Hints:
By secondary structure, the chain is an alpha+beta fold. It contains three helices and ten strands, in the order ββββββββααββα.
Amino acid sequence: MHYKGQKYRYKKQDVFGFKDCSGNDYRIYLNEKYHVLSRENIFLYEVTEDVGFSEMVVYETSYFFSEKLDSRIYPLTKRYLDWVYRKNFEFVRRMHVSFGKDEDLANYEEKTKQYKLISLYRQSIGWEKL
Length: 130
């Protein structure tokens, strides 16, 4: 890390998170780097990995979530969301009605400038209207 002209080195296990030179926030969890996508009600993360073969470079993005900023990070699947938010029956119901596949859980709505999953959660707790 560079700060005010000085260079610092830290072990991943000693760092909670950081902001890169482009202004992107990251959280370190179990020595892995997670790009923070949303900090609203449900914390959403992505990890993009190079899974290229020989001369062809291919990137694969996986999505994750946590209930709180400092809580465990889970894969973004309906199964894990069911478990973590099991006490919010309305959210779980809306999620199953609105998303057919796990891959759809990370859908971003340009119109509202937020992730659809976050919008559903906010509706389930009365913060947004349908």
